[in-house]
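Exercise 7 asks you to align residues with tokens for two separate proteins.
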Amino acid sequence: MSQAVKGKVELDKTREAMVSLGLDHGAELLGDLLTQAAKDNLAPHRFLDELLAAEISRREDRRLKTSLRLSGLPPGHTLESFDWSFQPTVDKKRIETLATCEYVREHEPVLFQGPPGVGKTHLAVALGVKAIASGFSVNFFRLDDLLFAMKRDADVPPRRLRSKKYMNTALLIIDEVGFQQMTRQEAALLFRLVSWRYQKGSTIITTNKSVKDWPEILAGDEAMATAMLDRLLHHSHVITIRGDSYRLRTKRRAGLVNQASANLATQTD
């Protein structure tokens, strides 16, 4: 057997061993990395470092993609894509501090409040992306979807309820709180969720209502609103955003808002 054939057989055996250990990506790159290592005269431990680094990088990419898909986070919302110049009321340094995910480690809530279209959801989702990158589990729900899930699980025993993703995820993002009043059952279920997650997991809420208006949201129950806000605001980070709607600004630039107004006026006449 020639040296070349012998070398190929030995390399194939190494690849098979790597695949059996789950190092599939490293097995694919083995030949190229060996060739490069020989050219660069790399020490064996340096070659091993590069091989393992490539495998770890591929696994991390897969983890991120899978976690993002399972989280339910809307795509395309990152801190890098946020238009800071359009919303000067947002304290960029404060958001960047939150992006370190210390609030997740400390099980602290974050509340984004402000009118529609000012970037609350974008920032909440962007923080969710950062949390996933830092290794935390994240789940995103619009309030209507969350209430539907909780009503479906209303009779689930507490022991089994703890396994639900909206209960046990490290970071729960609840979007669009305040657009409509909840029924007493819905308010009670949300209170149960907030109470259970208190100091056990971090929760981000986006709302178009000031906290003083929460009794109105929660079926007019001031006592429940007070108890819920007591838990949400304890060691919390409250971010208030003021300004125009980003979506309306984009439509104005395209001339769509004025046209829509004209159409409405025509239909009304």
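Second protein for Exercise 7:
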Amino acid sequence: MDAVFADGVFQVEDLAADSRWPQWAPLAGGWGLGALLAVHLYTDTSLGALNLYSDRPREYDDLDVEVAKVVAAHASVVLAHTRKTQDLWRAIDTRNLIGQAQGILMARYGLTADKAFAVLRRYSQARHTRLAAVAEELTSTGDLPDLGLTDPQ
């Protein structure tokens, strides 16, 4: 996280001799880590840091830092694209789940698509639960959550 606050780049030339992390630094040395170069990963939001380690203490030069920044920029783009793709697929899956729940209500109670969606929305609001969670419960159990209602219309 220090890379986020250190102008995008954070360097530790000798992990074993660095006193900032009294518990972590000795462990890192025991794992064979000698030095660290961390570069902030970000696009429009912070994505974390790319941590590059050396197996011996060393001083990173300007070229090392520039190469690390280029690699971090590429990694940031890939991570941002992957996150966006996952979000889109999650939205599609959620929409499909809600559509299945609507279909169950339409078939069971003779509702229109709009009325079936209104039933799901009302159950969601009454239970203070995400609409997708209500749809998941209906599609997995075949029943609407109990609200003391006899007819969902």
